[in-house]
């Protein structure tokens, strides 16, 4: 019930050089659980922003009244990676030993914000729901930890997809929950939900 909402939320997006350079933003209005209305959109050209500094942006919504105020910082991506199984970060014994030393008890108070990192190997899915008329799906997998999000590539026309990818997240809060969701890619339409699992970090 507000025309001037304040969210005050922070999101981290992992921007890699092979991705597009535009950040797309949509503002939605919810009447109830079933009815939603798009109030406007805007875009930010990431490449035009100065790096390693906080940019204060006021973005007018396209073809609609209103604007968005946000702080946006482009900084080097640290501790986050997507790799194949054969080159995963913990696969090298020397690197594993270095990490064990870095997070040993005697070094635990050197950097209180550096809790550690989580490495997740996403191998495959089995017997997924068929989302299209041909009895197949186009599944991809999204991993979310806090406000961090990474995803696999899409395996087309397959109910038993194999991704074989390794994802690395820096951990900011030991009480976070890793959420792994499988979606069916549906062209320009929003993806269809195929299933989800939630894993509390404290259970690992």
Automatic annotation (TrEMBL):
PROSITE patterns: C2 (PS50004). Its main location: membrane. Keywords: Calcium, Membrane, Metal-binding, Repeat, Transmembrane, Transmembrane helix. It is found in: Membrane. SMART domains: C2. It is a multi-pass membrane protein. GO terms for molecular function: calcium ion binding. It comes from the Eukaryota. It holds the Pfam family C2. One of its GO terms (cellular component) is synaptic vesicle membrane. InterPro entries: C2_dom (IPR000008), C2_domain_sf (IPR035892). GO terms for biological process: regulation of neurotransmitter secretion. Residues 1-59, 93-204 form the C2 domain. Belongs to the MCTP family. This is MCTP2 protein. It comes from Ceyx cyanopectus. The gene is Mctp2.
């Amino acid at each position: 019930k507000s025309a001037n909402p304040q969210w005050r939320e922070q999101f981290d997006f992992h921007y890699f050089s092979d991705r597009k350079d535009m950040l797309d933003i949509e503002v939605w209005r919810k009447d109830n659980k079933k009815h939603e209305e798009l109030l406007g959109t805007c875009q930010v050209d990431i490449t035009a922003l100065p790096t390693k500094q906080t940019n204060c942006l006021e973005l007018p919504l396209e073809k609609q009244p209103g604007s968005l105020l946000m702080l946006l910082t482009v900084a080097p991506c640290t501790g986050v990676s997507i790799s194949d199984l054969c080159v995963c970060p913990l696969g090298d014994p020397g690197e594993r030993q270095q990490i064990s030393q870095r997070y040993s008890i005697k070094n635990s108070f050197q950097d209180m914000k550096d809790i550690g990192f989580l490495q997740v190997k996403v191998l495959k899915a089995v017997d997924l729901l068929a989302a299209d008329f041909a009895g197949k799906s186009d599944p991809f997998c999204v991993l979310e930890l806090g406000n961090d999000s990474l995803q696999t590539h899409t395996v087309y026309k397959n109910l038993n997809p194999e991704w074989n990818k390794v994802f690395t997240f820096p951990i900011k809060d030991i009480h976070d929950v890793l959420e792994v969701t499988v979606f069916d890619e549906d062209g320009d339409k929003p993806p269809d939900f195929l299933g989800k699992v939630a894993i509390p970090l404290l259970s690992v």
